[in-house]
Amino acid sequence: MTAPYRVFVTRVLPGNGFAELLEDPAFDLDVWPVDFPPTRDELLEHVVGVDALVCLITDTIDSAVLNAAGEQLKVVSQMAVGVDNVDVAACSARGIPVGNTPGVLTETTADMAWALILSSARRVVEAAEYVKDGEWKTWTPTQMAGVDVFGSTLGVVGFGAIGQAIARRAQGFGMRVLCWNRTPRPEEAAAVGAEQCGFDDVLSQSDFVCVSIALTDDTRQLIDARAFELMKPGAILVNTARGPIVDEAALVSALEAGQIGGAGLDVTAIEPLAMDSPLLTMRNVVVLPHIGSASLATRGKMADIAVANLRAGLAGEPLPHSVSLAVDG
Ligand code: DGY
Hints:
By secondary structure, the chain is of the alpha/beta class. 33% of the residues lie in helices and 15% in strands. It has a seven-stranded parallel sheet with strand order 8-7-6-9-10-11-12, sandwiched between helices. Strands 2-1-3-4-5 form a five-stranded parallel sheet. Helix 3 links the parallel strand 3 (52-55) and strand 4 (75-78). The two termini are 33 Å apart. The structure holds (2R)-2,3-dihydroxypropanoic acid.
């Protein structure tokens, strides 16, 4: 009988696929049991000799981890669509396929972008806290008055599947929708009633600017001080992609100067956001703990895809969803 595959899984996963994996004698799983990720040293220790690694966005998978694992490592399977924490080039150079989990989280993440648009515009979080704090004493004409979403202009920066899903929802709000993508996507734009524009036009004409683009060397700090200068006074920035796409110091300055109207952030440059961040003192900023894809159903589907990628990689088959550069991408 062949020895079971040794797999390090950096957290307990939801979903049926993972439950089945736990029962499968073909796998010898080392599952990191707590919510906090393994430290760097713990990660380096637990990957030694594994055939596969299942990881999350909180784990940095670089050459040192691949070296520590050893030559028998056959697949890196990440339970997320974004893989900026994985050195995909280093994996690909060694012939190790990298899996991700696209598709299943598109609509759930677009819903969250809209939760941030609406809560930022209509001051939902601030107003709920006002009630809980016992501040609701009467009704006044301008009490907790925000800005209208209906009839305004939405700008989508990055027009992949999630950007398109965000744009599609805007039709119900009677909005003009502008979009920008590094590679123009005119057909996708037309399909959801969006106008494809230059980057600067999206920033300067939108009331809501939604960031929905992958983090790469090219998009790091794409939304910088210049971008905030271009934005309309009163415009609201929403980011459900990755924190480092926004220059957070420039965002704080733009908010402090009243250059923009507010921000709804599901992601921050460093996660978790430090409790002394000025963003947490601003009433016109909503910060969420990176929960864009966090519906129970979607997280289960993501985990199932991660398990399917793992099984395929160990069987030497093409991964159902791969981001590899050289192996099977
Ligand atoms: C992703 O999938 O990349 C999200 O950020 C986590 O769901």
